[in-house]
Amino acid sequence: MGLVWLEAMLPLGIIAGMLCVMGNAQYHIHKAAHGRPKHIGNDVWDVAMEKRDKKIIEMLSSSPASN
Length: 67
What we know:
Strand content: under 5%
Membrane topology: Single-pass membrane protein
Radius of gyration: 23 Å
Helix content: over 70%
Shape: rod-shaped
Number of strands: 0
Keywords: Electron transport, Membrane, Mitochondrion, Mitochondrion inner membrane, Respiratory chain, Transmembrane, Transmembrane helix, Transport
Largest sheet: none
Protein name: NADH dehydrogenase [ubiquinone] 1 alpha subcomplex subunit 1
Order of helices and strands: HH
Distance between the termini: 80 Å
Transmembrane segments: 12-29
Subcellular location: Mitochondrion inner membrane
């Protein structure tokens, strides 16, 4: 009677394992599609900063080097 809880561990382990597999699959698919991991909590401010940073990097890379 003491090991009855062990019967529940196999299905719970399978469920937990499949949740991990699905999460990892989602992570790798997104990373393959976009080239970087997903940004969690991406709001309007983050999007504006990404656009600004991209614009600055493009401006700096297109300007001639001043050596």
